[in-house]
């Protein structure tokens, strides 16, 4: 009899503790725009929430825009931290955050070697929660892309300031 009472109690406590620290998983799209530069970044993001803050990680695929004068593609990853102006757990709120992107990009006509790019950025946006489980997050950020590799496998315009609008959507667990 004790076991029959203990199992539902542990199950309820587990669900309650998971609900107080929700996490999200979903696709994200960003479009860095800068001086003579335009690209696309598509990826998958994971975000873990506390009451006012969140920590996020993502993997990305970078590719050139159709109207760009030179093509490139590559892979990357990023990590970020956000601070909410409200309660992350229960609703939709504005946020500010910091993010660091790392990318290996290969440029057509230059070489087969990947060029390592590092982009620290700040972002602002709004996190919308629909029902209990679906979210979307429009944001805009500003970052500065830095070439890390010594080889000149990229174009001159690839280093510099970027305005980075983005949109993420997905499911909250």
What does this structure look like?
- There is one protein chain.
- This protein is mostly beta strands and 173 residues long.
- It has one domain: Porin.
- It is built from 1 helix and 9 strands; from the N terminus they run αβββββββββ.
- It has one helix at 2-20, and strands at residues 23-30, 33-34, 37-49, 53-64, 72-84, 93-107, 115-130, 134-147, 160-172.
- Strands 1, 2, 3, 4, 5, 6, 7, 8 and 9 form a 9-stranded antiparallel β-sheet that branches.
- The longest helix has 19 residues, at 2-20.
- The radius of gyration is 20 Å and the shape is elongated.
SSE arrangement:
Blueprint: H1 2-20, E1 23-30, E2 33-34, E3 37-49, E4 53-64, E5 72-84, E6 93-107, E7 115-130, E8 134-147, E9 160-172
Antiparallel strand pairs: 1-3, 1-9, 2-3, 2-9, 3-4, 4-5, 5-6, 6-7, 7-8, 8-9
Query: How would the global form be characterised?
Result: elongated
CATH class descriptor: Mainly Beta
Q: How many separate domains?
A: 1
Cα Rg: 20 Å
Mean pLDDT: 80
The share of residues in helices is 10-25%
- At CATH's second level, what is the architecture? Beta Barrel
């Amino acid at each position: 009899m004790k076991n029959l009472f203990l199992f539902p109690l542990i199950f309820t406590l587990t669900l309650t503790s998971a609900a107080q620290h929700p996490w999200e998983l979903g696709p994200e799209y960003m479009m860095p725009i800068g001086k003579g530069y335009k690209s696309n970044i598509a990826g998958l993001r994971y975000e873990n929430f506390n009451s006012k803050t969140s920590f996020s990680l993502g993997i990305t695929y970078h590719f050139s825009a159709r109207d760009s004068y030179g093509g490139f593609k590559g892979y990357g990853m990023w990590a970020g931290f956000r601070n909410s102006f409200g309660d992350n757990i229960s609703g939709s709120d504005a946020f500010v955050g910091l993010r660091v992107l790392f990318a290996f990009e290969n440029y057509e006509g230059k070489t087969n070697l990947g060029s390592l790019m590092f982009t620290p950025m700040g972002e602002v946006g709004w996190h919308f929660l629909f029902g209990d489980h679906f979210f979307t997050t429009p944001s805009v950020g500003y970052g500065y892309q830095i070439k890390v590799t010594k080889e000149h496998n990229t174009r001159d315009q690839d280093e510099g300031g970027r305005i980075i609008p983005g949109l993420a959507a997905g499911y909250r667990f």
